[in-house]
Design brief:
single chain; alpha+beta; 4-stranded antiparallel beta sheet; 3 helices; 4 strands; globular
Length: 100
């Protein structure tokens, strides 16, 4: 039996306005920014909501958390430059990371 692999996830809630703006982005651009690779944004569903963000790994300190936050906002800003992403606080929660 496969054991779940939960890690902390820092994510940006994809609300209706952001989702609408994201739908205007070309698919080949979205694929460049949203992948199952640690360099890019992951899409995670938590409590019925969709988040874009990053897994923090097994261990994380405050500086790493700040660096990941900066990276997430940077990627989101490149993905949807018209949306003021930094006005929305990121959420930190445990999420299951797919094991390859």
């Amino acid at each position: 039996m496969k054991r779940p692999n939960y890690q902390l996830f820092l994510g940006f809630h994809v609300d209706e306005v952001f989702h609408s703006a994201l739908n205007q982005v070309a698919e080949d651009v979205k694929v460049f920014f949203i992948q199952d690779d640690d360099t890019y944004l992951h899409r995670v569903r938590h409590n019925g909501k969709v988040y874009l963000g990053k897994f923090l790994g097994d261990k994380s300190d405050l500086q790493n958390l700040r660096d990941v936050e900066t990276n997430i906002y940077s990627l989101l800003g490149r993905l949807v430059p018209t949306y003021p992403c930094e006005e929305t606080p990121l959420r930190l929660f445990p999420a299951e990371k797919a094991v390859r």
